[in-house]
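At this stage, I wrote out one protein, both as residues and as discrete backbone shape codes, and that material follows here.
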Amino acid sequence: MSRSAATRLVLAATVSALIASGAAAVAPQTIGAANAASCDPASRATKSAPAGVTHSYSKAVKETAGALAKVTYQIDIGTSGIGNPYVHSITDTPPSGFGKPTAKVTAFHLAGGLKEETVPVVADGTGWKVANSGWFVNSSNPVKASFTYDMPLSSIPGLPVTSGGITVTGTVGVGASLPDLKACFLTRVMTPGEAIGSIGDDLSSSGSTHSIISDVVSGVVSGILSGAGS
């Protein structure tokens, strides 16, 4: 087990203990109203193209996420009318301190229809890029890309976290640089399920390893619940 994975395991167990003891129960209520009001989980943009075609772009994230958990940004690229462009690449710029993500792309294929595929991710400036010879887009089938990141170990519950924008390349004018297409979420204390999920991918995929994670977290939670009932 790596030092990073071990650290996440210890922190996950600690967080679960706080949840079970009730110490974290007030976390959602203590987030400042000003933070919530200024933290928009989604943004959208459009771009006009020749022949009356409009391309649309959006980026979204869940409104809250457990500190140290995984966070997924959903990017959609659509079009209206004729044109049917192909998207060649999508670059996501995450919040500062976020490392390399995993990514999936959902797109329409002439052979096989709509498919979701796990795709490789490469560094691209301050962001992370997925690329293809061309993901097809039409008015009924936008391209959807999801980038999933591990939140940094420095994450603190109760704070807003804002991402950067996106960059798209492709045909028929669909390419765009949108640095203001951002998404913001509010951090909170992790749930036990998030605690397990946040470290599962960092460790071996064997059943025994996942059992260890579950036992550690469940054991801490059960112990505190027993103490609370005595």
Summary: The helical segments are 3-21, 27-30, 33-38, 192-200, 207-229. Residues 19-34, 204-210 have pLDDT under 50 and may be disordered.
